[in-house]
Design a protein that fits this description.
Length: 297
C-alpha cells in the first residue's frame, strides 16, 4: 500500500497568486477526502506577513470534517508556529528545516545548526502534547545556491530530529534538483543509517521534469509514502523558479498502472483536479488533466 500525502492545500496554494477563502480551501480538502486521500498537509503555521496565503490556518482547520480515518498536518518552522499549532486539533506537525546554510539563512534567517537547536524543543513539546511529528529535511537533494548538500549533513539533521522524538522523516527536494540515481543512493544510505523501521517519505518538485521518475526510484528503493499536489499546484516562494510538486493524479495513475494500491479513486481525483483548475483560473501542470484516463482502466 502506498500512502499519498496531499500537499496541494499548503505547498500548492502557498505559491499561487490566486488567494482562496478558507471555505474554498476546506471544500478542496473535503473533495480530496472524497477521492480517497487520507493524509493531507492542510495548513502552515508560518508568519502571515511572510506567506499571506496561509494566514487563515486556524479557520481552515476549524472548517474541516472531523474523521478518525483522516490525518491533517500543519507545517511548523519555529516556536511561534508550534504555539499556534498546539491551539488547534491538527493531528500531525510537519517540522521543517532545510539542510543548506545559505538556503536556510535566506528562508528563515538562521543557519541549519540554529534551526535544529530551535526546533529540537519544538519537536519534543509537540510529541509531549500528543501530536505526531514528522521531520521534513528540505534541500536534501541539492541547494540552488550551494549545489550538492553533503549526505553527512542531511543524516546529521535526521539524527537530531529522530533523537528529539520525530515519528517519521520526509526528505524534500525543495527546488527540484533530484535525479533517480541520487534518490536510490540517499534512500539506501538512510536505510543503512536508520534501519528499515524508519518511516521515510519523499517530497519532489517537478521543476526539471523528473518528479515521477524520482518517485519511481524512491518506490523501488523501498519508500511507500510520497507527497504530491493536486493538479501539480505549487512551488516555493523562496526558491528561484521552483515549479509545482509532483502531481497527485499523475502519480496515482502511475501506481494504478503498476497495480499498486494508493487507496484513492483516480476518476474522482481527476474531477477534483479539474474543479481546482477552474478555481485557480489557469491551466494546471498535471498531465492527466490534459490526457484523461486510458480506456482500459
Ligand atoms: Zn515543496
Amino acid at each position: 500500500m502506498i500512502e499519498v500525502c496531499e500537499v496541494g492545500p499548503r505547498d500548492g496554494l502557498q505559491n499561487e497568486a490566486t488567494l482562496l477563502s478558507a471555505q474554498t480551501k476546506a471544500d478542496m480538502i473535503a473533495r480530496l477526502i472524497d477521492s480517497g486521500i487520507r493524509y493531507i498537509e492542510a495548513v502552515s503555521f508560518v508568519n502571515p506577513r511572510v506567506v499571506p496565503q496561509m494566514a487563515d490556518a486556524e479557520v481552515v482547520l476549524s472548517l474541516l470534517p472531523k474523521r478518525k480515518d483522516v490525518r491533517y498536518a500543519g507545517l511548523v518552522l519555529s516556536r511561534s508556529g508550534l504555539e499556534r499549532a498546539l491551539q488547534t486539533d491538527v493531528d500531525v506537525l510537519h517540522v521543517v528545516t532545510t539542510t543548506s546554510d545559505t538556503f536556510n539563512q535566506r528562508n528563515v534567517k538562521r543557519t541549519v545548526e540554529q534551526a535544529v537547536a530551535e526546533l529540537t524543543p519544538v519537536i519534543q513539546e509537540g510529541r509531549q502534547s500528543g501530536k505526531d511529528v514528522v521531520g521534513v529535511l528540505g534541500t536534501a537533494f541539492g541547494c540552488p545556491f550551494e549545489g550538492d548538500v553533503p549526505l553527512a549533513t542531511v543524516t546529521r539533521v535526521a539524527e537530531r530530529f529522530l533523537q528529539a522524538g520525530c515519528t517519521a522523516l520526509t526528505l524534500a527536494d525543495t527546488t527540484g534538483m533530484a535525479n533517480p540515481l541520487q534518490v536510490q543512493q540517499i534512500v539506501g544510505a538512510f536505510s543503512t543509517a536508520f534501519g528499515s523501521s524508519l518511516s521515510l517519505g519523499l517530497h519532489f518538485h517537478n521543476t526539471r521534469g523528473l518528479g515521477l521518475a524520482n518517485v519511481l526510484a524512491g518506490y523501488q528503493a523501498g519508500v511507500r509514502r510520497f507527497d504530491a499536489s493536486l493538479g501539480g499546484l505549487g512551488g516555493c516562494p523562496f526558491a528561484p523558479k521552483a515549479v509545482g510538486n509532483v502531481c497527485t493524479e499523475d502519480m496515482v495513475n502511475m501506481f494504478c498502472g503498476m497495480n499498486l494500491d494508493t487507496g484513492t479513486n483516480l476518476p474522482k481525483l481527476l474531477e477534483t483536479a479539474a474543479w481546482m483548475e477552474r478555481i485557480i483560473g489557469r491551466p494546471l501542470d498535471g498531465m492527466m488533466l490534459k490526457a484523461g484516463i486510458q480506456k482500459n482502466r
